[in-house]
Amino acid sequence: MSAALTSQLRARPGVIRLVEDGAPHITVRVQLYEVWDMVRVQASPREPVLSVKVRALQALDPQADFHDDYVMKLNGFEVLDENASLADAGAVDGSSFLMAYRRRRPIKYPA
To answer: Which domain holds residue 68?
Structure first.
């Protein structure tokens, strides 16, 4: 499957751009697990994971209080150093990050 195809699957229309037009970039997807929604982000491979996380969180859950309440996962593993670049974290063009709450939340069943 090509990176161009995977960057279009099940994502909101539009792209969050963290890079100037014409500059080298990769496109990654960020899915916020709890809301079942996803955005595409174009960024330099040298862009810190944290800045991608913050911008994606602003788009996916504007009511979120703190980005520290969420973790970013790539290939099933938590990105422990969010100040590392996308490339250093292992992201390539077409990679998908999963963003999820850091701690489990209780399930509330209707009465």
So the answer is: 3-101
